[in-house]
Amino acid sequence: MLAQNVTHEALGAKRDKKRNADNDLVVNGIEISNMKIDSKITSRFAHNVITSQAVNRGNVHKEVIFDVELPKTAFITNFSMTIDGVTYPGIIKEKEVAKKQYEKAVSKGQTAGLVKASGRKTEKFTVSVNIEAASKVTFELTYEELLKRQFGKYEMFIKVKPKQLVKDFEIEVNIFEPQGITELEAEGTFITNDLQNIIKKTFTEKKGLISFKPTLDQQRTCATCSQSVLDGDFTVRYDVKRTTPDNLQIVNGYFVHFFAPTNLPKLPKNVIFVIDISGSMSGREIEQTRQALLKILDDIKDDDFFNFILFGSEVHTWKEALIKATPENLDEARKFVRSIDTAGMTNLHGGIMRGIDMLNAAHEGNLVLKRSASIIIMLTDGQPNVGISNTQDIQEHVKKAIEGKYPLYNLGFGYGVDYSFLEKMALENKGLARRIYPDSDAALQLQGFYDEVSNPMLTDVELNYPENEISDLTKNSFKHFYDGSEIVVAGRFIDSNQNSLTVDVRGEGAKDALSYTTQQDAEQTAEALKEQEYIFGDYIERLWAYLTIEQLLEKRIAATGEEKENLTAEALDLSLKYKFVTPLTSMVVTKPESYDNQDGIADKPIEVDGDPHFIISVPQKDDAICFNINENPGAVLNLVNDPVTGITVNGELIGDKRANSDAKIQNTYFGKLGIANKHLDLKLTVTPERITLQNGNEKTGQFFHTIDFTILEIHPGSDPKKPDATMIVKNNELRVTRGWQKDYRRDPKHGIDIPCWFVHNNGAGLIDGVHTDYIVSSLF
């Protein structure tokens, strides 16, 4: 009997444990029964499928949320929901067409954008759907990207955040590289010692496999916890075998050429650091800049030449010309960097032009080695406001002065920069722009960027292909090739049956010119097609399309007029043909017509957020303040009331057609302005593009007089891209958030990014009185 009781107790304990485990799986009535991240990487091109199945364990209908973060460099290619056997697909269309369909579909309700920027490297894709009790929904999201090589390795980044325990969770990454795999590693920011052994890693000559499949108990933050430890980044890195600098692959009328020579002597470099020291850089920003520059000085090679140029209101140079990185000069440079302090405003034009003139003079006077690589790295946290401040004029002057001789790299520190201006100027001059996030690791971000460009191996690299054989070639000339990176060129054969290719490779190295011809046929690539489990469609054709779209969109940033229209049309055609969600396309997601489900639209996010109702320019601070008035559509606000001139301006709010279903109040904008002059008995109704309150010569009521404010205690906010701070203004202490908004005065169609401090709660503490004091009954 005792034995029988023990057996019954043991069985009861097992049942209790299972019951508790089952209860832990259900959060707000929803159980995620399985989630799998399945990645196939073939020749650097990654095809990722995220599948998640959820069950409504409640006895009433429930909302199920599918929430995924994916790399910003990726393009979504497919999404579907399957509810009780019925599939609801996402359809990719031209953005304007999708928007019209979307607005028609949701005219009776509100709806949510599906993709939003999230963090430094990711975008968030979110879909929610209401399902009946006991119903199941399966979400499937597919995205693709070309993996870039940096510091000698390819890296694939997966964000892992199921937010609850998952009965069956798995990550599987299959890699196939025809060249062969030399190393393979995987790590996770959430991986504890207990989880380390769960990561399974194997690779043979050409194939690699990473598997991570934790049990339910292994997912727990502790033995009795119902929270999941799976919250962070999972990263896979690998490299391939290189017996020659080139690898060409030919499949079905398309080719890809990977170029990454090894064991070349490093080129000496000539680098000028152009540093913003305006007042807004004071405090942590200038200290982190000093830290980064000191570390960079430790890495500068003895055959390099360098100099520092500082710009505030005035422009200062450390030395009158580039100097060699001798131990003595480096010691003197360290003393100079430690003494850098902030002062004045932002003479960006003066600083960058001084750097260009200095580098040009060094080349013209043969002060630097003929076989060397020259670069300019500019760091700024604001916008030009001294000297030439028109950004278009600055771009023109810089492009004319550089004349394509060397790349310009622009680093935008924080959120006060006009990032689109920095990006255009860098791309026009064979460089790139990078945002430096104002976090505790900003010095490491600065140093990390320098590391990427600190070891040039070749200059003026050209990969030339027979013009009579190839059409639709991606970029094939490159100013610099850096150690640990890779150049990728893809193209389409005029004759789709062609199975061989000859390439002429040229470049300038540290000791002599690089010049050779290589040939490849399709036989070796044909071997890859036999590995069917690694093949996803015409992967080289899709790689070509991805790379072409990416480069067209990049060219489009700096283009204008007809050239921009042609680039847009070409990128749009390819985006639609290959079903990529890009900045030119959207994916409409249809949902079941029950329980207030609304259709959604997925757009590729860009750098700029939505606009506020008011932007108050504060020139003496080189800054701006912005705020919203959150009122319902139809409300009329008194904007200007000047008893001396008799002028009154009122604005009527209209609703945003792309309203957010999660918002408590519908987004609104000014749809009409009523302008009246009682002295002239004049009434005028206009439809504005945007309203900007300028703290200058324009008379705009309470903001006519100078606004003085102080910003204190800048710290991370709920959005990692938008820090919070304390603002002291009008003797009030307000919580404000840093962001950037659109000013449409100079560019009515696209707007110009304006950084500002956003005042919450309808401008409370900034405006006189409360916002309801400004509500009036009609436009006149």
TrEMBL record:
GO terms for molecular function: serine-type endopeptidase inhibitor activity. Residues 270-453 form the VWFA domain. Residues 16-145 form the VIT domain. It comes from the Eukaryota. InterPro entries: ITI_HC_C, ITIH, VIT, VWF_A, vWFA_dom_sf. GO terms for cellular component: extracellular region. Signal peptide: none annotated. It is found in: Secreted. Keywords: Glycoprotein, Protease inhibitor, Proteoglycan, Secreted, Serine protease inhibitor, Signal. Belongs to the ITIH family. This is Inter-alpha-trypsin inhibitor heavy chain H3.
